[in-house]
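User: Modeling request: complex.
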Amino acid sequence: MDDLNVLAVLAGVLAGASPIVLATMGETITEKAGLINLSLDGTILLAAMVAFLVAHDAGSLGLGFLAAALVGAGIAAVVGIAGVYMGQSQVAVGFVLTLMCRDLAYFLGNPYSRIQGPRLAPLPVPGLERLPLLGSLLFRHSLLVYLSVAVIATTWWYLYRTRWGLELRAVGENPQAAHARGIDPKRLQLLHALLGGALVGLAGGAFSLGIKPGWGRPQGAEGMGWIALAIVIFGGWHPLKVALGAYLFAFLQVLGIPLQSWWPSVPAQVFQVAPFPLMILALLLLGLTQKDTLQRWADAHPRVRKLLRSIQGRAPRALGRPYRQE
Amino acid sequence: MVAAIVLVFISAILVLAGAPVLEVHGLLVTGAVGSWSKLAQVLRVWVPLTLCSCGLLYTFQIGLWNIGVEGQVMLGAIGATAVLRLGFDSALPGAVLGAALVVGMLGGALWALLAGLLKTWGGVNEIFAGLGLNFVAQGLILWLIFGPWRRPGVASMSGTEPFAESLWFPTPAVWRISPHALGLTLVALAATALVLRHTRLGLALRAVGGNPSASYLFGLKPGRLMLWAMGLAGALAGLAGTLQVTVVYHRLIPAISSNYGYLALLVVMLADYRLSWVPFIAFFFAALNVGSIQLPLVLQLDSSLSGVIQGALVLTVLLIHAWNSGKAGTRWTT
Amino acid sequence: PQPVGASDFSFGLLLVGPYNDRGWSQAHFDAGHYVEAKLPGVKMLYIDKMNPADRPGVTIPQLVDDLVGKGAKLIIANSDDMKDGIREAAKQHPDTYFLHISGDDALTGKGPNNLSNLMGRMEYGKMLAGFTAALTTKTGKIGYLGPLINEETRRLAAAAYLGARYGWEQVRRQPAADLKFKVTWIGFWFNIPGVTSDPTQVAQNFFDSGYDVVLSGIDTTEALVVARQKHQGGKPVWAVPYDFKGACEGADQVCLGVPYYNWGPSYLQFITAARSGNWKQQWLWLGPDWSDINNEDRGPIGFLPGPALSAEARTALKQFTAELGAGKVNLFQGPLDYQDGSSYLKAGEVASDQQIWYMQQLLKGMEGPSSAK
Amino acid sequence: MDLELRDIHKHYGTVHANRGIHMRVASGTIHGILGENGAGKSTLMKVLSGYAARTSGDIFLDGRAVDTTTPAQANRLGIGMLYQDPLDFPSLTVLDNFSLGRPNRGGGLNRRALAEELTRLCRDFDFDLEPERSLEQLTVGERQQLELLRLLSLEVKLLILDEPTTGISTPQKEKLFGALRRLAAAGMTLLLVSHKLEDIESLCHAVTVLRQGRVSGEMTAPFQLDELVNLMFGTIPAPPPRGAVASGEPVLLLHEATAGGDRAGLGNCTVSVRRGQVVGLAGLEGSGQGVFLRLAAGLAKPVRGSLTVLGTQLKPGDHHGFRDAGVVFVPTARLDEGLVGSLTIAEHCALTEPHPSFRIDWQGAANTAAQRIARFRIQGSADTPAALLSGGNQQRLLLSLMPARPRLLLLEQPTRGLDLEPARWIWAQLRALCADAATIVFSSAELDEIMAFADRVLVFYNGSLVRDLDTRDSDLDDLARAIAGK
Ligand SMILES: Nc1ncnc2c1ncn2[C@@H]1O[C@H](COP(=O)(O)OP(=O)(O)OP(=O)(O)O)[C@@H](O)[C@H]1O
Ligand SMILES: Nc1ncnc2c1ncn2[C@@H]1O[C@H](COP(=O)(O)OP(=O)(O)OP(=O)(O)O)[C@@H](O)[C@H]1O
Ligand SMILES: [Mg+2]
Ligand SMILES: [Mg+2]
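Assistant: Request completed. Predicted assembly structure:
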């Protein structure tokens, strides 16, 4: 092995994962509220395009990110209104939007293909960047990376430590019961779809203004939306586990590179495709633990049960099912 | 109504992009059906799209969201390629092609059954299983093309070494489209119509899709029927993949599935899950895809517009449906 | 084929990527415009993104039909992947001329008479790129960000290595063992998440493990982008992009230069021949015009030194270019071994075009896989 | 606070669940709402709590007309409800459940203060609830206690309890009742929904009885139980004369069978049903008769004990095996479990064809459908989707689809939603089947149906089989009281 700088690699993982982190946190919030927004892949691309376009024309990164967030929220609004208020299949609407937004991005973004535009610069934290180990690992990134880490913490705090987060989880579990307690499930779902969508939009901006600056076809973010969806499931809908999943994904990406030469008999595709089999595995685990026989067996082995409980996530119970009032 | 909304939407996008609205619409039409050669090209797209859509009808009937068609097409193509590679020097090209069809369909069916088993046995939502398997299938194709099946020396995007011409389904020069492919597609359409409308299997699929627990009490086996639906859908997708290999590209290429699996989902949604509309909507979508090539050629516009039009149409229809059923206040159809 | 008057002449251009990709396809697209400007009456018809992923179900022969129907007399196809389709189309349209970039049908005799091949000897561009890298590197570690593995990409990577080795040993007078040259392939011509390795990560990884110059084998600008970020973070690193003359733009601090294609003059030559009826089937593999490699009216390839290249290195580069041009230096000369130790060129043996074109492995001294498993 | 309801109507689609209800409740009293299953009790309470929007009618609190169209509004007015089916969040913790639905706005959540309040309330009421436990680990009774404390902490003035005593143990019930009495004494108004006479008797000051969506009577304590039973079930006609209970070989044998399901499950049930018998299962909904039928149908497995059907040891839980052996099960929730809403009558006929061929003979199916429509007098045509039939007609369709010669027929509320005359006709058809040596086991919420058509009645209460009687010599009142747990 070359003198691969482990710290630098980890710092790279931290940075490389930042858009995925934003997208997965957004989708986690949305799904925790019981709504499934399948349009991520298209949303990210369209937001990336718009972010670049706006940042380029207005010469302002801030406006670019704002536009990206708005695009994300706008698309989520369509899914939310159709899925929550009109009772249409969330999966169908999200899926159509995925395909459509992607093409819309290519169509409208064509004139902006591969031109120079503004991009985020590293913003070392004064003082902290000089810390011996942590400095290069944590404090020499762009604003985006700090933001992504902050978003993880905030998402966790929001979901588990605030009243709104509690209500949001409640709605995702049992909208009828939430309604009985004076919460408006539809409004709450829509609002969090917007919030989640905005974060997904920011992820798009993070690509075109940060990680893979510029617009073009391909942009390089194609497929990331699906990966993000897979990671949310892999992380069992818990923001910290999901974030871990995002970092694991980025790490696998990096790991695939040296492995090319260390272990050439492993097909390169294995590492790229990994998130998907892992997602299926996570779901399988979830499904199997709900089987009677397995459950009984696990009940007889408390340690196994504990282990299962800790790794298995649980989908919000009302996920994807629109709420209707009696 | 739908058409009007979409027309306005598309025109708005065109204005936004600064394109001549009328000319674009005109070009899309002439570019698709302006000559026999273009029509033949449309039919080439129509064939796999219709096959995939037919397959999706089985799974939608039973209430499954089979998003894994892409992967099933790919596995069909892989299966067919495997046979054709083995039968490279065969003296009986007809038999080899026949075997390729069978193995291709099997490949698609098995890939679909994998998602089906994950669903019925493992409780894995078919959407995520299918999606994941799509990516795995794509990885598999790339691995084969750049690895064990690479062209001597030049592993490249252009795929595996082309098959000997004797192993192509023939395309008469004047036809420009393989009669075999057209024939098989028509057979698939007819068979699907027959199975769905006139056989116990079709009825059982609808019954389980409508109400699994009632169907169980009627003596049906929902799990097994789901596997049947997945298997049939996969076989048809596999057939599409096989034809992509044997008729269109004459080799395995990375983009062999050409997004038809995803597009077929849109076709079936727009057809409101009805078989009778599928061939026409598939034709319309194929025509859009082919017609849109004129956009860069003549107007220097990006041809992704066709995808936008397709998406906008389906989205509009979904929203109008939701709106109507919301007004009616009752929803019992699945 | 009947001779055509000096009046109107249309040619069709099939581009594998977007016409505005600031890379391989745009270089061809710009060449088309170059010809339009040089030869009044000549008109270009083009279709871009001509690949099965972007245009499912659309085949080369059918598009050629369309272009011929619109009046094209010469069809240029710019991708190796179009080889089979263009051969088929050439057989179907014996009265139309075909120019396939990067193929070898005219060499192998598989193609009909109306089909010619053209390729630029980018090996020289890559040698110059490798040379600048060797002159600039402080750590003696050079990374090569490769696309997918085939003969073309292998020989380009090898050429870059040879250029680097020459600069390292002959100019900088450093021991051969201190030069590291490593190739990492992403698996495709561009990044597809979930399918390829991420070139951004590959570049990161290079820089993070001590490689301070990354040569890009792909069009997209990840190597430059990452180098720029690292540079802003205070790390002395550089990158060399690929394919497009304007690629250094916006990366002044890190861009050592760019090997690029300049198809205009060659296009001009073929189109003039086609228009006047003097078409001859050819397999052309053209090197740079050594007298002035960055003259846009000559030679199909060039190397434009970048703003980050030091003055000394510039001088050395000039000298190296002159030596190459004069034939004083030939880097594809034995003894050279393949990576597995088998002999590629015996001592003193000069590689034939065939030996270079069909390169079987990376060279000994280079790290990284020679073929995909 | 005083409560008055005037002319409350509630429609669920085509179901008219409350049909003009008037009611008054005085401040500081515990008022009972009594009625058999489906009488409309829960609906009325949900209207009051804002959970379900009423179709028409007025609500007055302390003489003031109020609007309670959402639970939030009702909360602000001081109305709180403990729902029949627990409306809480099993995957969240006790404290989370306690914290959810507080009216003060803003995003803050003072977990420490809330935990302290919960602990204090627990102490006051002698409940034992750990704040950080997951709700899944609590018993139904504990979940109710938590919900009660939550409502109290909101300082509700009108507390509605919808059947709080189903599925909880006797000591828990004692605790609960003690708490309720103290609350009433402190001036709170309580509404207690139940069909258990003992609960009403021991707790309530006054009671309103509902029957088929209307008020059938009111009474203040002390209550005359016979009169209440009458108001609940209507006057029960004397059973028609019948021969002796058939005593062929045993068809259905349960030995100490225990199984989960419904509200109370089924515990330690031992019984034998013989060929040719018509057995009625009586009891409040969810008292165990549903589990009993599902066990017999091979839809559920006993956790303990044994089950023998038709003399053979069929594999428990293998419904299709039972089916092939001649066991027929007809569920009650028609569109939920029995029929496929999107399929037409003819398609249902084709689906249940006894000797199916792969290719469907649509002409034949249409003919069969026409015959059945005529025979069972279904209002619809061969191509009417089941979802478009009225409830009664769905029931007829379901019965018409039964295989021709069943050996053991298991029916869940076979005539629910049918008028008297069609019900009689259906029963004539069913008994004709029995003449062919079939055995029928059916459940019914209506005692008169059981008295009229069954030879034998099994009464279930809270998951146990409590009486096994011959219908010819049973005392109706005694039966009604057994159902109500008295
Ligand atoms: N959400 C609903 N949609 C449609 N019909 C309903 C709904 N809820 C109740 N019903 C119907 O309204 C009628 C009254 O039901 P309700 O739940 O009020 O009865 P109940 O007196 O509480 O009965 P139980 O003692 O079984 O709880 C029943 O016929 C029931 O089927
Ligand atoms: N979901 C529905 N969508 C459309 N029409 C319906 C629906 N449900 C019922 N109908 C129609 O409304 C009519 C009345 O239905 P309803 O269930 O109120 O009848 P009913 O008077 O209760 O009869 P029954 O005594 O047989 O239950 C039915 O004949 C049916 O055609
Ligand atoms: Mg009730
Ligand atoms: Mg009715």
